[in-house]
Design goal:
Purple Acid Phosphatase, chain A, domain 2; 12 strands
Length: 245
């Protein structure tokens, strides 16, 4: 199950109930692509609603909103350029990540890990948020094993780096699916250099002869200062991987 961009605020009770009920689906692994927090006091309700999923095996990376509190900004500006690193209050990020790790989820912020998922050995590699300059691909070594990559923001440089290090499947978030989509046109922005037509869903990529599939989740939330989605429903993705001879 791929979940991301929760942007949780304490008063969002229906979102919290929805997250708690996700465990009713068959889940071998939870993939969390960041931006869990949407308020300075979001960590306790986040951990409470994620509790059932934290009992499942999981991997995660952070997004910028896991480090910085949200601030008012004009969302229309994203159409013209990607947002920059916030200058707002720092959040208690380690309180969240420590809880994830204590529950058994693997921290993939510029890290890699080999784990078994439903009896299948898989190598996972991930980067911290490229969007605010925290990613470090040099920490990740290539492997001959089947590899899955994680990134919060799907910038092309990151997709290239993960693919060249063996990632055949890459999970990302950040885009909110465009958040505002125009009928017959689609997303107006991805808040990155990823082309708008790939703002959500799956797409195929090739770099220097190596191929990967990108899965971008539209996410469950948005900034509390831009609480609008237009023709872009919130999303969690349940993905089944099949072995092909």
């Amino acid at each position: 199950m791929q979940i991301g961009d929760i942007h949780l605020a304490p008063w969002q009770k229906s979102k919290q109930r929805f997250i708690r009920e996700l465990v009713k689906h068959p889940i071998d692994l939870v993939v969390n692509t960041g931006d869990n927090l949407g308020h300075t006091k979001a960590i306790p309700p986040l951990l409470e609603c994620l509790e059932p999923l934290l009992a499942k095996p999981g991997v995660f990376v952070n997004g910028s909103n896991d480090y910085y509190a949200p601030v008012p900004k004009n969302p229309i500006s994203y159409i013209f350029h990607a947002s920059k690193e916030p200058k707002s209050a720092r959040l208690e990020t380690t309180k969240m990540t420590n809880a994830f790790e204590l529950a058994g989820w693997h921290n993939l912020n510029n890290k890699s890990v080999d784990i078994e998922v439903a009896g299948n050995p898989i190598r996972f590699i991930g980067v911290d948020d490229y969007h605010i300059g925290k990613s470090n691909l040099s920490e990740l070594a290539a492997s001959q094993s089947f590899t899955i990559g994680l990134t919060h923001a799907p910038y092309l440089e990151v997709l290239r780096g993960l693919t060249l290090r063996g990632a055949e499947l890459i999970f990302a978030g950040h885009t909110h699916g465009g958040q505002v989509r125009v009928p017959f046109i689609g997303a107006l922005t991805t808040n990155s250099d990823l082309p708008n037509k790939f703002a959500r869903g799956t797409s195929g990529w090739s770099f220097e002869g190596k191929n990967s599939i990108l899965s971008v989740v539209a996410g469950l939330g948005n900034s509390i200062f831009a609480p609008v989605r237009f023709f872009c429903r919130p999303e969690v993705r349940l993905i089944t991987l099949l072995e092909v001879d």
